[in-house]
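User:
I would dearly like some help making sense of a protein record. Take your time, and here it is.
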Amino acid sequence: MEEPVLNWFCLRSQPRRQNVASIHLRSLGFEVFNPHIRLRRATKGGPIWRTEPLFPNYLFARFELLVAYRQVRYAFAVSDILKFGSRWAVLPDGEIATLRTQWGETEAMEVPDTITPGTTVKLTGALFHGMEARVVCLLPARQRLKILIEFLGGVKEAEVDASQVVAVTSHPLAAGERNGHSEMTRRGSRPSPKQAEPPAPGSTE
């Protein structure tokens, strides 16, 4: 009896339901990778920690396509199994293994919120909420920051409470993407969804 050919596929979930899809697929016995990031977000009430999907509405599952296509495709909260053009969005085992090692068992990575001179930050609170500024220097004795902010047509220097700003952070995979380290990013941009049945047994697709 031949061993099953298991591959990692990229799935699109229904909007904001990828966690539901992940739970359901796992309950069916499929191996799933659903990475998240934990980071500080600016709100009018001040910075708060939030856990958000690394790839909103996308997750990964490992299965044998010809055997489990319909079970996965029509699983609860799954919208589609994706393709890169005419090819199924199959991800190398090594790429997924590397990401799973980085994200750990909880599948959640905390994005550092380190602020140093030169850091671009986003202000929170009612008056300047959402505005970006650049940190000039830290004032640790008073737990404040000196910043430069564009206001009333010019660049002004101001002091703000360090607890009322969040660093503007890039996507955790951005560095690897810029350096060409990620096989997934080298394949192109976000895969374009395409409704399709799997190839018939014996097909070379």
